[in-house]
Amino acid sequence: MNPADPISHDLQRAVKLLTAGCVVAFPTETVYGLGADATNPQAVRRIFAAKGRPGTNPLIVHVADADVAKRYAKDWPEAAVALASKFWPSPLTLVVFKTDAIVPEVSAGRATVGLRSPAHPIALELLRAFGGPIAAPSANRSNRISPTTAEHVRAELGSSVDLILDGGPCQVGIESTVLDLTSATPAILRPGAVTREQIEAVIGRVDLAAGQPDASQGAKSPGQHAIHYAPSTPAYRFEAGQTARVLDWLASHPTDPTGLVVLQTWDDFSGLRSTSWPIHFERMDPDPAEYARDLYATLHRLDTGGLRTLFIEMPPDEPRWAAVRDRLFRATRAI
Ligand code: TXA
Ligand code: MG
Prior knowledge:
The chain has helices spanning 11-19, 41-51, 66-72, 78-87, 104-107, 121-130, 150-157, 196-203, 215-220, 244-252, 270-273, 288-304, 322-331; strands spanning 7-8, 24-26, 33-37, 60-62, 92-97, 112-116, 134-135, 163-165, 177-180, 187-190, 207-208, 228-230, 233-239, 260-264, 280-283, 309-314, 333-334. 34% of the residues lie in helices and 20% in strands. The chain contains 13 helices and 17 strands.
């Protein structure tokens, strides 16, 4: 092995580095995180520097279990007790009021902190061995695709991370559900694999926070969200059955004919296939969990392979697709 290679399986070294205030990338079931001691302001600042992330965007703090979470929460409401006991470890982040031990750098000056116990054996082993809370956003440069393999992290962050713990490909593939428990009615700030319906079955009604790109909002204000999943690659979405729009778009835009890709799930796209456009069709799984697991890895692979323009056939506007649609809305503009 190359001694300069940051990819490693050495958990004890990861713990030593975290204790020394260094940043360590580690696998979770959702995406790889870029971790640092959440009680050490210098260490946390290193995360923001490595990601190029604005200091105004708070970080999620990972904990081994609910007992550790309670130590860092000023208030651990009944809803948190119920949700943590039902779902943790899992892709569910609970936003609660924080204690002073979680440094202001983590929470971007807010009184709250997002806490989550991740369902990945290496993440849990790391958290138990380290003993404290680990602040970790996704281990990508700000505004880029989240990493779902150690290799993605190395390609993106390389020398700015001291060690990348390799835990294989992430099984969930998109980031956790973020649930705010500090508002009068709990609110989903970011949909994820733990669904609104699953949460409501435990604690009753929850809101979907304003700004979430659900279908009605998307229709009202297309393009209000980030329009590139990566700054260099324009990505356009269209609802299933609106294939003709891709043709119209190609006909009316001066476009580099190389690197045209359609993420295809339901339509057979016979209309597009019969044109002279050299379009590559990338087939996505029609099951929401499989689709989510493969999404970022597919985008990373296409990017490396010279992707120039991406057209995405949107999954149906159904609750089970809420998290995937959210990520696709953020990554694209309406065609
Ligand atoms: O699955 C995940 O959550 C991954 C893995 C590594 O655990 N982490 C992740 O972190 O996606 P990040 O920093 O990329 O996204 C954190 C999200 C952001 O949308 C942030 O605004 C929100 O959680 N967030 C974190 N703390 C918050 C707080 N105190 N109040 C409101 N939103 C918060
Ligand atoms: Mg992120």
